[in-house]
Hints:
Blueprint lengths: L12 H11 L10 H7 L3 E2 L5 H7 L7 H9 L3 E5 L5 E5 H10 L1 H8 L11 H14 L4 H9 L7 H11 L2 E3 L14 E3 H5 L47 H12 L4 H8 L5 H7 L4 E4 L5 E4 L15 E3 L25 E2 L2 E2 L1 E5 L2 E9 L2 E6 L5 H18 L6 E4 L5
Parallel strand pairs: 13-14
Antiparallel strand pairs: 1-3, 2-3, 2-4, 4-5, 6-7, 8-11, 9-10, 11-12, 12-13
Helix pairs in contact: 6-9, 7-9, 8-9
Amino acid sequence: MTKTTATAPVLGTRALNRATLERQLLLRRSPLSAKAAVEHLLGLQAQNVKPPYYALAARLDGFTPEELSGLLADREVVRIVTMRSTIHTHTAADALTLRPLVQPARDRELTNFRKGLVGVDLDRLAALARDLVEAEPRTMKQLREALQTEWPDADPQALAIAARCKLPLVQVTPRGLWGKSGQVALTTAEHWLGAPTARTMPPATTSSAATPPRAAARGAASSAPTAPPSEAPPAETAQSPDATVLRYLAAFGPASVKDMQTWAGLTRLREAFERLRSQLVTFRDESGVELFDLPEAPRPDAETPAPPRFLPEFDNLLLSHADRTRVVPAEYWGRSWVGNQAYCTFLVDGFLAGVWRLEEGALVIEPFGTLGKAQRAELEEEAVRMLDTMHPGTSYDIRFGTVMP
């Protein structure tokens, strides 16, 4: 970690907490549209179908699940593996630019499966997999079976993972739509969004947020490889690291180089920060670690009230810094997940304070510590608002469970 000089201003934990909550649209609800929020936040963690919906419900004023579902149906947002090798919901433009940016991490991931890929020409595998999924969306099982006919001695699971690492594969709808069900079927981002593939990409492109036309029937997008939208986004190259640093700071700052590397699953980002140093301001945390930020970015007073919020499992607020104490008290580290299973969490006074779950007819709130009467009342009020947003017309009891050990 880089240490700043003693003259750099210090931002305490609460100051970092309030700044991060403001950037994350959690200090007050934002009037942004769902699409604008997904873009601002550089995507939403989406290992499961429901978390992106709950993430936006906690952040936006007037949000309805149908808004995000409509964006998926219209191919204005997609589900794709990007940061930290996890599925994220991204805008179409970001899917085409952020995925190439993190490609080095996907290449490193492949080394974990090299024993199962002996003798496999990865470029040929990528070309064959592209032809397969662009002819017809394929499940991972179907992709494994098809690739095994070409490389019968290779590990079938490694073959499918190699295809996922080499290609920007998106999950086609109805997977991800609110109130719908569908298995994971994959095609390339370029094919789904109607953008030229890397093989036909022009030598120079400009960043664009052009939007694909709407699907014929909102909420009923087909999983078949229909003709690409006639007004698809232009082909994109990888977003520059410098531009992504600025966007990351806008959504997660103030932050260190290591914080951003943790968020992206990348290494060697210091050069980008150094190129931008003259455009940024610097601080240090209470341990002396250098933090970068945008000069005009909001940094609220440390005592700014922070209302309670209910977050989904794997929310990026909890995963996007190397030092998570700005949101996760040290004594609660590791208590929001067991193994690979993460719990839905809630914030009190801006910090992780417990977990929650929906049971048959009840929302169960399990705090890590003792809550005051006023805090319980505020949580109940926020729970009602969340339930009315996500499950209108459905009656739930709100219960406080046993304090987790």
